[in-house]
């Protein structure tokens, strides 16, 4: 895996990050740090990446478990150390999983597997941060599945 991060050279602290897979994202600093608040902070990107990593796992695990999952949101709340390095010290993951007749034990299992085995981002962050997880399941019975619309 490769990435390139380049200071834009503009006044302030904006950086353009390019991934090895050909995608780009802008990052910026806080105004008090010389940034212009035009894009996410680098540590926000770390949190976003962790949320994406675990949501990906949960959806994949639930699909493999033959669950009719229709949506998965993860709200992450994090605290950082007051002193340098300002690592994450606490992160809460709250999953909102939507679908039809989802089994709570399988949702819980998917979250656990993600955080203990598959999500490399959360496993790395667990070295400095206390991790907590919660979830809710929303029944999504009113929206037909693709199985219901096929002949």
From TrEMBL:
UniProt xrefs under SUPFAM superfamilies: OsmC-like
Top-level taxon in the UniProt lineage: Bacteria
Annotated TM spans: none
Name this protein carries in UniProt: OsmC family protein
PANTHER family according to UniProt: PROTEIN YHFA
Organism: Undibacterium rivi
Record-linked Gene3D superfamilies: 2.20.25.10, 3.30.300.20
